[in-house]
Amino acid sequence: MERTLSIIKPDGVSRGLMGEIVKRFENNNIRIIAMKLVRMTKSQAEGFYAVHKERPFFGSLTDFMSSGPALVMVLEGENVIAKNRELMGATNYKDAAEGTIRRDFANDIEKNVVHGSDAPETAAVEISYFFNQFEIVG
Ligand code: CMP
Fold first, then answer.
1. How far apart are CA 87 and CA 77, in angstroms?
2. What pLDDT, in 10s, does the model give residues 96-134?
3. Ligand 1 in reach of 102 Cβ (< 6 A)
4. Residue 133 gets which letter from DSSP?
5. Strand 70-77 and strand 31-38: pairing?
6. ipTM of the complex
7. Which residue ranges make up the annotated binding site for ATP?
């Protein structure tokens, strides 16, 4: 059984998309085993996205991610990392397949509604960035 970190980013929360996105996870046999709203500080967002610190969009991305509440979740299921990435669609909404979250709701490459871990190693690091063992209902 695999785990991944999902974030509904501040644009998704402020646009009222939490219920719709959670429903998609539930409809696809993905179990939510932890969930909370977080308002990241700029430095917490910088820590989370540290791998991107040399990218030109780093400053803007971390401003955006610390601009309001985000919904962070731990998802569990078979192949859930790939499954979640399939449900999200490509980073750039213009390349995202029909019926994906980003294709349906995003209209900006940065404010792209959701984040999902890309591999088991990053999932472990990202989950422990937000949750301790007592917050995860395994
Ligand atoms: P995410 O999957 O959370 O991982 C890194 C984030 O950086 C990405 O989603 C987007 O929000 C943002 N991002 C990636 N590429 C670009 C880009 N070319 N311009 C602006 N933001 C980007």
1. 14
2. 999 999 999 999 999 999 999 999 999 999 999 999 999
3. no
4. G
5. antiparallel
6. 0.95
7. 9, 57, 85, 91, 102, 112
H or E element that contains 36: strand 31-38
Q: Which residues are annotated as a binding site?
A: 9, 57, 85, 91, 102, 112
Per-position DSSP letters for 94-120, written without gaps between them: GGPPTTSHHHHH--SSSS-SEEE--SH
Q: Compute the distance from residue 58 Cα to the ligand 1 centre, in Å.
A: 9
- Tokens representing 64? 């955006």
Alpha helical stretches, state H, the chain: 10-14, 18-27, 42-48, 58-65, 80-88, 101-105, 120-130
Q: Mind telling me the catalytic residues?
A: 115
Gap from CA of 109 to ligand 1 centroid (Å): 6
Nearest CA to ligand 1 atom 21: 110
Encoded tokens for 125: 């690091």
Sign for the CA dihedral angle at 8, 14, 15, 16 comes to positive
Ligand 1 in reach of 110 Cβ (< 6 A): yes
